[in-house]
Design brief:
The structure is a homodimer of 356-residue chains.
Chain A (H helix, E strand, L loop, with lengths): L11 E3 L2 E3 L6 E5 L7 H13 L4 E5 L3 H13 L4 E5 L3 H9 L4 E4 L7 H14 L3 E6 L4 H4 L7 H21 L5 E6 L3 H12 L7 E2 L7 H17 L5 E3 L6 H14 L7 E5 L10 H10 L8 E6 L5 H7 L2 E5 L3 E6 L2 E7 L3 H12 L1
Parallel strand pairs in A: 3-4, 3-10, 4-5, 5-6, 6-7, 7-8, 9-10, 11-12, 12-13
Antiparallel strand pairs in A: 1-2, 13-14, 14-15
């Protein structure tokens, strides 16, 4: 699994970012501000850029929002994606405003000629379109009854996606990214697995409406994690009822866990038990808080006792193994100092500053 | 994947709980209190029981702790597991104190006769033993150099596990549970996958020293999630540098996501975007806080707008779809009322109380 084989996908250009093929799996998010509020939206996107967001999507509920994309785009550095539902004219306006990609759910755009208008405009602007199937927004087409099995719903989502792909291809539009999100994790996994066998367009993956920070992170980690481990997924978005900065943080943690991207600190911490004689939680929390801004890949270990402590601390770039009211600091596998508990955080951070 | 095929494993009895075979995947945790402190340890275990912990482990660093197990066991309702390192006499004392299972890492117990003494005592007490291989505590045997590939480390862990299994079997001891934890998620996954092909003993799975709450939850969800999705795993422990109650909560969320256990609320929440006109985060947070104690399986949806809102709200047992400063409440797929934003939380919780 270390040399995980990625599904072979077509390369797609979203502004300056490329996805698909052998390009790194891009981390994206979506603003939670009102897109008509230029200042708040730009501020949120700038914060997202700082934490490593590589593509950002904004909702386009009306004409004011569609026109405002011009003002937003001027001030930001990452590709901007317009999210359109129901009204194809908003898609045309968004393209006119210079977005780098649009996302539509063709199922709620209406008559075919409207979809074809969007395809023409995107083609002449040379931007890709994501076909974003979402189990919640396609219930008229997808759901026959409540509580269908996840495999049944997945099959319906895939058949819907394939019909849209055929329409796009019939109109000579191949610059396609696909997503098949459901709030149910197994449905989502099944849908992507099925579609992966049927086309080579790159996939935007995620669990939709996954929930609040902790449960939403769990569903997203399992769903996105399983798909990525099977080589499926070219860009990811973690959907959380939480700050979009958390979506990006969780996204990178998922990719780091699977060794698909490197970014910032990997913090190994013992969960502590009756054996622990120093306050590991406090030390780990302080170190976490002080390392969130680091982008250089570093492995740190904060361990409580002599059972696994020295082993893990030696494996880390910088490690700490606790004893009775003291701790031993390891750097690149070698002991460098023994420190009293009260000085541990300070000394550890001092050593850390020397290596990042 | 909905009818996921579990690996065929031997059934093992841990006090009143059975794992392996077709028994539900049990959720366990470990106390973080000093095992010599009877009152704190019992209190922590009672809180763990309340949130659904099914097996609890305590560290036994010395004789006082080993003897104190008697006092702890008297007051608790779930099986008690003793965790022993280095000193085989502590294992004998723990068995004498009436533990329901012991966990040892035979690699740090010393000479073979000491391990055999433990096997004899466990056999006569009719309790199982977990062979707990941990990459961090076996570095002398397992690691040849720093930064070996995850597949290499996994192979060494498995070969060590197999040698201990042979020793146990030679001594006619078959009441075995196995774990092969590493702080690296891919190493852990690879190790369990390899060992799954070589024996039919049940597995205790988890990522060791996974980290603080959020990153630790991500690594655990991916590692445990991937293994469970392949049918591997008979009991799980999420190792977090956080309250053990969070370990149990995360454990159940993982099992619920994969539809392997049912317990409490599944809260679908839209992540919100520029389309949202009510304060979804506040509503979701309040609902989350007020539903953590519910054990009846219920699907709730809190959605912001008309794109996916009505679809998801209809699928839920109780759902809420926001509009302009108001929300519509759905119950079992039908609209039951339209409520002003300021009354939404109260009305939603009122309806919820009627169904749990």
């Amino acid at each position: 699994m270390e040399q995980l084989t990625r599904r072979k996908t077509r390369e797609i250009k979203i502004g300056k970012v490329r996805i698909g093929g052998k390009f790194p799996i891009a981390v994206q998010s979506m603003t939670k501000t009102d897109t008509r509020d230029t200042c708040s939206t730009i501020n949120e996107i700038k914060k997202l850029e700082e934490v490593g967001c590589e593509i950002v999507r904004v909702a386009i509920p009306d004409e004011v929002a569609a026109k405002n994309l011009k003002n937003i785009k001027k001030e930001i550095s990452i590709p901007l994606v317009g999210d359109i539902h129901f009204n194809y004219k908003l898609a045309l306006m968004a393209i006119d405003s210079g977005v780098d990609k649009i996302r539509i759910n063709p199922g709620n755009i209406g008559e075919e000629y409207k979809i074809i208008e969007i395809l023409k405009a995107a083609k002449s602007a040379k931007i890709p379109i994501r076909i974003g199937i979402n189990s919640g927004s396609l219930e008229k087409y997808i759901y026959k009854k409540r509580h269908e099995s996840s495999i049944e719903v997945a099959k319906k989502m895939v058949s819907k996606a394939l019909s849209f792909i055929r329409l796009f291809e019939k109109n000579k539009f191949f610059d396609i990214v696909l997503s098949l999100k459901a709030s149910d994790t197994l449905t989502t996994i099944n849908a992507y697995r099925l579609l992966a066998e049927k086309c080579n367009y790159p996939f935007h993956i995620g669990i939709t409406e996954a929930g609040t920070l902790l449960p939403g992170t769990i569903k997203s980690s399992i769903g996105i994690g399983i798909l990525l481990s099977e080589g499926i997924g070219d860009t990811i978005r973690v959907s959380l009822a939480s700050s979009p900065l958390n979506e990006v943080r969780v996204g990178y943690e998922i990719l780091k866990t699977l060794k698909l991207r490197k970014r910032g600190v990997d913090l190994i911490v013992c969960p502590t038990c009756g054996r622990c004689e120093i306050d590991i939680f406090k030390i780990a929390e302080e170190i976490e808080k002080n390392t969130l801004h680091i982008t250089k890949p570093l492995k740190l270990a904060v361990m409580g006792c002599s059972v696994n402590g020295p082993g893990e601390a030696k494996e880390a770039d910088l490690g700490l193994a606790g004893g009775k009211k003291l701790g031993i600091i390891f750097k690149f596998g070698k002991i460098i100092k023994k420190v009293r508990e009260e000085d541990l955080i300070k000394e550890f951070l001092k050593e850390l500053r020397k290596i990042y």
